[in-house]
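Hi everyone,

Forwarding the result from last night's run.
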Amino acid sequence: MSPLEWGLQLVLLVLLGAAIPFALRLERALREIRRDRGAMEGSAQGLAEAARMAEAAMVRLRASAELAGRQVAERTAAAEPLRDDLRYLVERAEALADRLEGLVRAGRPLAAEAPRPAEPAVQSQAERDLLRALSLGAARGSL
């Protein structure tokens, strides 16, 4: 072998020696990438499972909302006749209250003119208390 060949082989040997640390770093990086890829695939599977569960939950929620909507519509339909009946009763009660108020107003002057019956002789304290309570109640009712 000639000295030129020896020199080229020596340069090649030095370059190969310098490449070994780079190869070791590259091997470590590839090992980490493979490990991270496994974790990422596991995460992707977990994410896919979570997405499937969310979709199933949305379907159940939509079904529950539709059921609740139907129930509300049924109850509303059942309540409408009751509402109409109550409205009718309120209107009749208002008309009767107006009529009664007119009769009370018409009767007040007659009640003021009518002679009061003589109060019977009171026998006991309980009777006196009862008469006092009745007269106070009548006075408050006319206000």
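The longest helix spans residues 3-113.

Cheers,
N.
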